[in-house]
């Protein structure tokens, strides 16, 4: 007969309330950035006649491709491109965060992740429970975000060299990428609206649809998270196999069946740790020291890492970009003619053009040298 396990109750307080507060604060910060950016665009729309509002540098955080390329350029050359310098520091903060706490950015800070969670909660209330996609469909769908990331990696790391990366980062297209993104939503087309509405409806039915299947940023952080030494660990000796952890996991990980959660989908939300009824059975632990990392440490750590790295950008004077009001007014008028290379042939042509410009100049390419990049 199987001996009954002695249960020591888990009396630790849940961290989910604090996670919600942090997510809300970060989402409000993003809304504030959006409002400031709106006033900045009013200045451009009035051709410089209405009062000037500083462009909020935090908007760079919404340009993940530019930020990733900026980070790549910085790591390769030690130099910072000043088109969207805040993006470099925001990206670096997220990478460091992922190296320490796995994909914690997605569940603690990302406003899209937060929105996805709220929509998912709403869906679960309507449908009275979770709707799960069968595994045979879940796996191929999860690969979609890796395909998108793969193409991006191929275009940047294989097809482009450092001259082309620099030329892209300093191009007029990249300089107004934030404005283009703003007008994409402000003057949203019918087809884009249909796509967004469809994503919303699907996310009500299928929890975290965007994050789980389509977000290439999440795919990148999932890969980086494998390098994190801190993982959710289950103690099989004290575990009573109640299955509550697996039931609570929004990433559908079978936490109750593994000793260590090693998954690109684990976003360190700690929901599983919170629901475990037995003390010292399920915790975030360092795989090297085997020491438990308290929930409080995760909450404070996530916010501190983000503030510390972005704070370095701020105090070193690498936060605001170097685009003048006059340049913005000119870009605003020409913006519709700016494009970016799409497809491998266009990226290769862009690389060739950048290298030609570079050798003609016999010096690093000058600012705005790559014309409007019409491809
Ligand atoms: S395994 Fe735990 S920490 Fe990871 S996503 Fe699932 S519930 Fe969150
Ligand atoms: S919640 Fe998970 S780890 Fe905790 S006792 Fe139940 S099955 Fe075991």
Rg, Å, rounded: 23 Å
| Counted beta strands | 3
Shape from CA axes?
Answer: elongated
Q: Give the N-terminus to C-terminus distance in angstroms.
A: 73 Å
Quaternary structure type: single chain
Structural class: mainly alpha
Sheet with most strands: 3 strands, antiparallel
Mean pLDDT over the full residue set:
91
**How large a portion of the residues is in β-strands, by DSSP E?**
under 5%
Helix content estimate: 55-70%
| Low-pLDDT sequence parts | 363-375
Major sheet: arrangement of strands? 1-2-3
Element order: H for helix, E for strand? HHHHHHHHHHHHEHHEEHHH
Distinct small-molecule ligands in the complex? iron/sulfur cluster
**Could you say how many structural domains there are in total?**
1
Number of alpha- plus pi-helical segments: 17
What's the short story on this structure?
This protein is mainly α and 375 residues long. It contains 17 helices and 3 strands. It has a 3-stranded antiparallel β-sheet.
Question: Please, could you describe this protein's structure?
Answer:
There is one protein chain. By secondary structure, the protein is mainly alpha-helical. It has one domain (16-227, 295-361). 59% of the residues lie in helices and 3% in strands. The protein has helices spanning 16-45, 64-77, 85-101, 104-108, 111-126, 135-159, 162-170, 172-175, 177-186, 190-205, 209-214, 216-225, 244-248, 271-275, 295-315, 325-334, 344-361, and strands at 230-234, 282-286, 292-293. It has a three-stranded antiparallel sheet. A hairpin with a 5-residue loop joins strand 2 and strand 3 (292-293). Helix 2 (64-77) packs across helix 3, helix 3 packs across helix 12 and helix 7 (162-170) crosses helix 17 (344-361). The model is unreliable at 363-375 (pLDDT under 50). The structure holds iron/sulfur cluster (2 copies). The site of one iron/sulfur cluster (SF4) has 15 residues, from helix 13. Residues 234, 239-245, 255-256, 275-276, 278, 281-282 line the site of one iron/sulfur cluster.
């Amino acid at each position: 007969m199987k001996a009954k396990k002695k249960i020591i109750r888990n009396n630790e307080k849940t961290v989910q309330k604090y996670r919600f507060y942090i997510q809300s604060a970060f989402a409000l910060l993003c809304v504030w950035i959006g409002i400031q950016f709106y006033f900045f665009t009013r200045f451009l729309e009035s051709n410089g006649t209405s009062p000037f509002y500083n462009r909020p540098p935090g908007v760079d955080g919404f340009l993940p491709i530019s930020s990733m390329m900026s980070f790549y350029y910085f790591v390769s050359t030690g130099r910072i491109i000043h088109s969207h310098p805040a993006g470099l520091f925001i990206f670096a903060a997220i990478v460091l965060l992922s190296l320490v706490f796995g994909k914690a950015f997605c569940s603690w800070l990302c406003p899209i992740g937060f929105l996805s969670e709220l929509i998912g909660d709403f869906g679960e209330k309507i449908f009275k429970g979770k709707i799960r996609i069968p595994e045979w469909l879940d796996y191929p769908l999860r690969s979609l975000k890796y395909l998108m990331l793969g193409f991006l990696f191929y275009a940047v790391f294989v097809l482009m060299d450092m001259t082309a990366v620099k030329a892209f980062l300093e191009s007029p297209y990249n300089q107004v990428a934030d404005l283009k993104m703003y007008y994409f939503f402000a003057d949203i087309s019918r087809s884009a609206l249909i796509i967004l509405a469809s994503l919303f409806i699907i996310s009500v039915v299928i929890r975290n649809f965007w994050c789980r299947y389509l977000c290439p940023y999440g795919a990148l952080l999932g890969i980086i998270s494998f390098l994190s030494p801190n993982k959710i660990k289950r103690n099989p000796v004290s575990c009573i196999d109640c299955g509550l952890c697996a039931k609570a996991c929004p990433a559908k990980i079978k936490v109750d069946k593994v000793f260590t959660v090693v998954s690109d989908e684990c976003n360190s939300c700690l929901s599983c740790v919170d629901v475990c009824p037995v003390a010292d059975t399920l915790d975030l632990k360092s795989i090297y020291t085997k020491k438990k990392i308290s929930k409080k440490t995760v909450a404070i750590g996530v916010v501190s890492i983000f503030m510390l790295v972005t704070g370095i950008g701020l105090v070193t004077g690498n936060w605001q970009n170097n685009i003048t009001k006059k340049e913005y007014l000119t870009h605003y008028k020409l913006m519709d003619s700016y494009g970016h290379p799409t497809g491998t042939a266009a990226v290769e042509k862009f690389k060739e053009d950048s290298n030609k410009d570079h050798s003609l100049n016999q010096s690093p390419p000058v600012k705005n040298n790559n014309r409007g990049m019409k491809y």
